[in-house]
Design brief:
InterPro entries: Tad_N, VWF_A, vWFA_dom_sf. Keywords: Membrane, Transmembrane, Transmembrane helix. Pfam families: Tad, VWA_2. This is VWA domain-containing protein. Strand 10 and strand 11 (about 290) form a beta hairpin. The chain has helices at about 10-55, 65-80, 160-170, 205, 225-235, 350-375, 400-410, 435-450; strands at about 90-95, 100, 105-115, 130-140, 140-150, 180-185, 190, 245-255, 260, 275-280, 290, 380-385, 390-395, 400, 425-430. The strands form 4 sheets. Strands 7-6-5-8-12-15 form a 6-stranded mixed beta sheet, with helices on both faces. The longest helix has about 50 residues, at about 10-55. It is of the alpha/beta class. It has 2 domains: about 15-140, Pantoate--beta-alanine Ligase, Chain: A,domain 2; about 140-450, 3-Layer(aba) Sandwich (Rossmann fold). The protein is built from 8 helices and 15 strands. Helix 3 (about 160-170) runs parallel beside helix 8 (about 435-450), helix 5 (about 225-235) packs parallel to helix 6 (about 350-375) and helix 6 (about 350-375) runs parallel beside helix 7 (about 400-410).
């Protein structure tokens, strides 16, 4: 018996067609998914950079509205740079940037989408593939004191130092951040005290033409501990309930210290005021050069308070305590006469001994004050300028930049002063005037990164 032949060609064609659609859709899904992945990665990076840029941009402006405008403009500029239009044929959209002020914090919210045409997935009716990204940056509140060295060795660099200091202050938010300004030479002088309760700082009084920075006179010695002591005191005078989450000292200097302040034992006990005792940096002429008045950059005391009336060094730093209480146990925070880290005796028996003890005490004190500040959660950032920082000086042939690294507790500081458990700051070296502003910018960027 003959069995009839059934034609099945039409069914096969239908199955092939359906399989082709599925195959094409699968390939399209793989291709378009890969493209979407690259677009997503690019969009994420662009949104992140825009968020960080907005956090930096919000520092500009004298009102919240101006700061919002600057933040949004910065966000747009960085988004456009990092996500060019038509990247992989996609069309990006940056949504309105949110800028929210809450006491000392600024919250930046950035979001964006990008749509790209699909390829083979179009056979399933899809026209575009949409991806989204968002980022939030919270710029924390900041308490900061800028400490500027105005010693005579910087006189030839005065204009560059002033300009760099102004540029640095302009990188911070004058309505949210709290900033104090002081300078030191033979002694320290507070120019603009940091606010104790209210937020913000008077940037104009510091940076305007004829303002505090323009008034700096570059004369006198280098009393680094006076500057460090006053900076720490400014931050700690803010009550616990009002302190910012980030506290910073930015310390600029061009050389090693060769002076420190205290009440000094003196002939007949006639001098009842504290002063800053200074000596020459070089060994060739080791005589004491003067006892300088407190809270004034470079004014010598005479008569009963002349340097030649000093008979010994005090056991403890007591420059900011009443003379009668100088040896109270509660006030013994920073030793002068000590065996560590450098040996200092109370003796001023000869010019050589004077020179050695004053130099070593000057270094010991500023290191101890910076260490105490770090133990209290304060970051120390340092900036050094000039060739002298790379020359061995003092009785122990030390480099000035090693001292600045130690103050900041940098990762490359000498092992003797490195404290990994304490806040790690940054040291930047400016060889010339042209390096100053970039160094200050580097410090500002590091501080702003910590505050986010």
């Amino acid at each position: 018996m003959r069995i009839p032949h059934t034609r099945q060609g039409g069914q096969v064609l239908i199955m092939v067609a359906l399989s082709a659609v599925v195959l094409i859709a699968s390939v399209g899904l793989a291709v378009d998914s890969a493209l979407g992945y690259f677009v997503k990665a690019k969009l994420n990076a662009a949104v992140d950079s825009a968020s960080l840029a907005a956090a930096r941009g919000v520092t500009a402006g004298s009102s919240e509205e101006e700061q919002r405008t600057n933040a949004r403009q910065s966000a747009k500029e960085f988004f456009d740079i990092n996500y060019p239009d038509q990247f992989l044929l996609s069309t990006p959209t940056l949504h309105p940037v949110g800028v929210t002020f809450d006491k000392g914090n600024v919250t930046i919210d950035v979001s964006a989408t990008a749509s790209l045409p699909v390829s083979l997935m179009g056979v399933l009716g899809f026209k575009t593939l949409n991806v989204a990204a968002s980022a939030q940056t919270i710029r924390k509140d900041l308490d900061m004191v800028l400490v500027m060295d105005t010693s005579g060795s910087l006189a030839s660099n005065a204009d560059a130092v002033r300009a760099a200091g102004k540029s640095f202050l302009n990188k911070f938010n004058s309505t949210v951040d709290r900033v104090g300004l002081l300078h030191f030479a033979s002694e320290a002088q507070i120019d603009v005290p940091i606010k104790q309760v209210e937020r913000g700082f008077d940037r104009a009084s510091m940076t305007m033409k004829g303002g505090k920075i323009d008034q700096f006179a570059f004369v006198g010695g280098t009393n680094s501990s006076a500057g460090m002591f006053q900076a720490r005191k400014q931050l700690n005078d803010i009550g616990q309930v009002n302190r910012s989450s980030l506290r910073v000292i930015v310390f600029f200097s061009d050389g090693s210290p060769a002076a420190f302040s205290s009440y000094f034992p003196n002939t007949g006990g006639k001098c009842k005021t504290a002063g800053a005792l200074a000596t020459f940096t070089a060994l060739q002429n080791p005589a004491l050069v003067g006892l300088y008045k407190m809270a004034v950059s470079d004014t010598r005391q005479y008569g009963d308070c002349d340097a030649m009336q000093i008979t010994a060094l005090p056991p403890w730093y007591n420059a900011n305590n009443a003379y009668a209480k100088a040896n109270d146990a509660a006030l013994r925070e920073f030793p002068i006469v000590t065996n560590t880290p450098r040996v200092v005796t109370s003796s001023l028996s000869s010019a050589q001994v004077q020179w050695t003890n004053v130099h070593r005490a000057s270094r010991n004190l500023v290191e101890a004050m910076a260490a105490k500040a770090r133990q209290e959660g304060i970051y120390v950032f340092t900036l050094g300028m000039g060739a002298s920082l790379k020359s061995k000086e003092g009785p122990d042939n030390e480099l000035g930049e090693d001292l600045l690294r130690c103050l900041a507790n940098t990762t490359d500081a000498k092992a003797a002063c490195r404290k990994p458990a304490e806040p790690v700051g940054l040291y930047c070296y400016a060889a010339t005037d042209s390096d100053l502003s970039p160094c200050f910018t580097r410090l500002a960027s590091a501080i702003l990164r910590i505050s986010k």
